[in-house]
Amino acid sequence: MENTLIGKRSLMILSITGFLTSLEVGFTTYIDSSYLSRALSQYTSTPDRLVGYIFAATAALALLYFIVAPKILRRFGNTNVTLFAASTLPVALFAISMPLHIIPKILTYLLMTLDTTMIYAGLDIYISRYVSEEKMGVLHGVFFAILSLGFMLSPALSGYIASGYALHYVYIAAALSALPIPFFIRYAFKSFKDPHYDDVPLVISKRLHELTPDLFPVFSAQFALQTFYVMMTIYVPLYFVEHIGFTYDRFGYIITMALAMFVILPTPYGWLADKFIGEKEMIITGMVVMGATLIAIPFFAETQQTFFFWALLLIISRIGATATESMADAFFFKRIEYAHPSLIAFYRRARPLAWLIVPTIGATLLTLQIIDISSLLAVSGVAIIGMIALTAKLRDTL
């Protein structure tokens, strides 16, 4: 009975911690590219073309962390590592809001994103230890919905702050929301017993690939999802504000409505995957929707469209993204992580890898004026749909 109570208490605090982390991330996610672009504008006449390189640098740092994470976790333990990241996160956010020179501002931005990466990685480890395999689909859907609720609530508020006051106040609000996180982690997980963290090589061996043939297909789905997020985080906000003419508060309202899908849909998606459809079909459908909506944005931007049209289009895009993200994670934890716990680090490399490759390519193409942002969005949508060929190799669970 005592162990059950500890597990329930830990899951509850894990949900609160995830909510606060996502609340903090949601405050700045759709402001970052504009804020960094304005900071760069003091030093260059083409800041929008260069901002992608900063995002690529943060991804390279996150990728490096996932490579060395098993060694760090073996030495310090997941709770100490997550607690360190949670403690330095508010400091970095407060620092970013200050009128710093571009170099220290970029460095603090790198620290902020690394801290967030480490916290989410730590939460992954906790949930994999507290949730049984047979309940993974539904409970992971519930946890994902809680994370998404925090991420959903903040963009509208951050848009209001950015339009009514100034962009740097958004980072102060994010810092305040992150302040309680280390206290919750220390309270709930100070006695957490770490599993053994095996080193995961950069290249998976042939034998491990034979044991886990679904790893690369689900990795491909995650890479496609992160490609979508790169576009939606870096280039779509710039496109809507500077090309379509949206204000920050109006764009923030649209994003909040769209992100509601991440709160509403994961639990029924998880139930459907556990009982009826299976994750594979839902992942692929989500990829089609994500790619199609990216292609549609520049196409419809050529005509006068209403606020509600754009809101509907971005809501549809998140319906697809919710299916791919929640079901890819559920598939991974159900079919792969239980057999090879250390492969969490490999699977999570898809995010920084996509955020390293895609912004670098995008920034280079824009800097060389090979394409504009409109074409970049369309090409990315085509690429996401093309990745279905890799994801289709998943073995169905039903």
Question: How would you summarize the topology of this molecule?
Answer:
Layout: H1 2-29, H2 32-40, H3 47-76, H4 78-96, H5 102-130, H6 136-164, H7 168-178, H8 181-189, H9 206-211, H10 215-244, H11 248-264, H12 266-275, H13 279-301, H14 307-337, H15 343-348, H16 350-367, H17 373-386, H18 388-391
Helix pairs in contact: 1-5, 1-6, 1-7, 1-8, 2-3, 3-4, 3-5, 3-16, 4-5, 4-7, 4-8, 6-7, 6-11, 6-12, 6-14, 10-13, 10-14, 10-16, 10-17, 11-14, 12-14, 13-14, 13-17
Task: List its traits.
398 residues, mainly alpha, Growth Hormone, Chain: A, globular, disordered N terminus
Q: In words, what does this structure look like?
A:
With 398 residues, the chain is mainly α. The protein has one domain: Up-down Bundle (Growth Hormone, Chain: A). The chain contains 18 helices and no strands. It has helices at residues 2-29, 32-40, 47-76, 78-96, 102-130, 136-164, 168-178, 181-189, 206-211, 215-244, 248-264, 266-275, 279-301, 307-337, 343-348, 350-367, 373-386, 388-391. The longest helix has 31 residues, at 307-337. The protein is globular. The two termini are 34 Å apart.
